[in-house]
Amino acid sequence: MIFTIKDRLKEAGTPFVIVEGANELAQVTDRPPNTPAAYVFVSGETSGENQRATGPMFQRTSVDVSVVIITENVAGAEEAARDIEALKAFVRGKLLGFVPREDADPMEHITGKLQQASGGMVWFEDVFGTAFYQEEQS
User: Fold this and answer.
1) pLDDT at residue 77 above 80?
2) Checking DSSP bridges between strand 58-72 and strand 108-118, what pairing results, if any?
């Protein structure tokens, strides 16, 4: 699922120089090697109760997918804030309603939060949700 989301954010016309996952984000201490950057990863999963009274287990699993957007503008915080708004709009435009795998629900926006802003560098996290069903394999 994450691979299809990353591929979608890398499509022609992308403003991102980097679109990677959680492992690459974990290596970023202060700033990514290039900006703008987007880091995509599953930030949570929640499964509901079994949907069947008899037979193999069948559960709906909700998935939260985080997209951490990082940009920098040497002109300062105000310009970086404008840049982050354009990047958020791009990500939301690409992911709202996107079906990340054949058996999943279309993606919805859950929340967005400023993670950090300092010295013209802005980190913003958008969280999207989707869901799919899991079935017991016998």
Assistant:
1) no
2) unpaired
Classify strands 108-118 and 121-135 as parallel, antiparallel or unpaired. Answer: antiparallel
Whole-angstrom CA distances from 22 to 95, 98, 100 are 18, 21, 17
pLDDT digits (tens, 9 = 90+) for 12-62: 999 999 999 999 999 998 889 999 999 999 999 998 887 766 777 778 899
Please state at what angle helix 2-9 crosses helix 77-95, rounded to 10 degrees: 120
By the 8 A CB rule, do 10 and 94 touch?
no
Q: Which of 129, 128, 43 has its CA nearest to residue 91?
A: 128
What are the DSSP calls for the chain, one per residue?
A: -HHHHHHHHTSTT---SEEE-HHHHHT-SSS-SSSSEEEEEEEEEEE---S-SSSS-EEEEEEEEEEEEEEE-TT-HHHHHHHHHHHHHHHHHHHTT--SSTTSPPPEEEEEEEEEEETTEEEEEEEEEEEEEEE---
